[in-house]
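Most newcomers find our protein records easier to grasp once they have seen one. Sequence and backbone structure share a record, each on its own labelled line. To make this concrete, we reproduce a full record directly below:
***
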Amino acid sequence: MDSSDDDVLLSEEAYRRQQQRAGGRSAPAARIVSAASATAGSRPDYAWERRYERTWDVIQVDDVSGALVRTDQLQQQRQRHAQLEQWYREVWQRAAVGGVGGGGGHRGLIRYLVLVLDTSAAMRPGGQRSSAASRAFYDLKPNRWAALFSAARQLVRDYFDENAISQLALVALRDGLAHVLSDMSSSPRPHMEALQALEKGSGDGGGAASLQNGLEVARRLHAAVPRFGTREVLLLYGALSTCDPGDIHQTVEECAADGIRISIVGLAAEMHILRTACEKTGGVYRVPLHTEHFRELVRRHRVPPAGRIGRQRPGERNASATAKGVADDSTQVTLVCMGFPPRVARDAPQVAIDSRRAQRVGYACPRCRQWLADVPGTCILCGLTLTHAPQLARSYHHLFPAPRYVECAEAPAADGPSRSQPATDIWECFGCRRHLRRNRALCLQCTGRCGQRYCVECDQHVHQLLHNCPGCEALFASDTG
């Protein structure tokens, strides 16, 4: 083994102390990385070597503000921006690909999603399993069971925050069966309560998971979905097998014929049947690398998937999609009748038709005048879709995303956004109005109309929460006002 100065893990003084403690005996040669070579970018190969890294060397005191800053802060910001760019390419630019085959790209604003959770023995904390299966149970931190429900709760919150007029249902797989936890609803309350009850009821057993039964139950839940809605199934699957009572391939073909898009996030190794189900229905299949990657893969499904608009007659499926065995997401352009009921307070409590509870404050359906407890949703009596104008606007931004932000070659001066000004050490973010250093903060420029500069925090806030560029909106307001 090479024992040169470039391959030294400990300092010479520490090595001499180790020799003295060993009583003068020659210790086995150790592969070491000196401080100079570690700073040059060489990373240790083993976990026990990483604890000797001098992590405090990357922390310094800022000369201007006096705060503690990292010297590699700019590199970390570039990584965060690269992750956002990758998500932008995978999610938003897929709409352009969806236009292949004679149609234009589109996204469904009214979604009907069935979230299927694998709660079999492969996911439960109890139960008898082999040593390899026991180790696989802790591949996600703190374990698969906790990571599954944490990601599911976050998805429910993000789903209704980004898709206010959509609906969701929950299905659990265990003991070879599929159990409906909550029916289609546009309120997150019943889904959160069902997840909380299921997580507390974790125990031994769980049995095997059945992919076919889960898809059959999802088909039954999608049977009453109107034609203008998108039918989606998201499966969080952790088992390495499926116990099906019939032909699973026939069930996948029926899902494709019904226009149901199946997407799967597999917690274990890739399975051929899961890959086939996603490819035939136009969904995506991903296997996470670690816990944070798993949460990110699940969270990506909060955005409506891209599809294509076809030109077939009502009731006629796309011939090319039928020949290829792919789910037909060609949606006939349809006018959807919606109601916008105001929130009113009555003198006496009245039983709401949806919650079956008496309350004074609620909503009256504009068509049948039935008393409702919550909006958005669908009137149980007349079937009218009820929503608010702000909720409809929150779903509308999926069709027109905010313009991309790209890294600037040179940062501008702090007193203006003009691109002809000379570069200085300090630049100002248009979003948060902070003055930042070029060597400490990444400068991003809007590719839209305004061309303003933004920091990484504002970039993530605009593209993940706000969905509107402040600079472009300010120019639009000045033009119209």
Notes: The chain has four domains: 5-53, 100-324, 338-396, 405-480. The first strand starts at residue 59 and ends at 61. The mean pLDDT is 78. The radius of gyration is 28 Å.
